[in-house]
Specification:
This protein is mainly β and 188 residues long. The protein is built from 3 helices and 15 strands. The strands form 5 sheets. A 6-stranded antiparallel β-sheet has the order 1-2-3-12-7-10, with no helix packed on it. A 3-stranded antiparallel β-sheet has the order 9-8-11, with no helix packed on it.
Amino acid sequence: MLPFGLPLTAEGLLQLPATKTISRRLSDMRGYYADAEAYAARLAAEDSLIYTFWETEYTGDTRGLSFGITEIVPGTVGREFHMTKGHFHASDGDEIYLTLKGRGKLLLQTRQGEARTYDMTPGGICYIPTGWGHRTVNVGAEPFIFVSIWPPHIVHDYESVQKYGFPQLMLQGDSGPVEAPNPRYQAG
């Protein structure tokens, strides 16, 4: 990997060469939204894009950093805001998120069920220690874009989140986002 310098803006960082790009459509999110009926109705109408992730994984043998950029489009499935699948790190490795554009929430959980939620706004930073599952949610009306930085070669566990969920949901309320308990959540 060569050194680089770019402006710390969504537009600047989206110019980075990605080693992998993942686009998640609604059909890729089966089992992640709490309202199964709203999910099925929305999917029957359209298989819209929910988020895109551009990754640059460090592949060297020495110490390094991997990084990515996530863009979650605005919208809801029923009352639940668009979100990433979320995951735990199945191997040791902390992560940092830096928000560039939009409004979001970072949902965190331990496998024992402890939960926390943090606001993500432009210029803000969130630190995710090893052992905390994490998911991001777009609670605004524009694309929500953030940078993530982690040590290379981390193994991701998406299956636990799909099976057990997160303790908290981010729902569209009458006057904005509302955090609510997830009735389908199980500690795992």
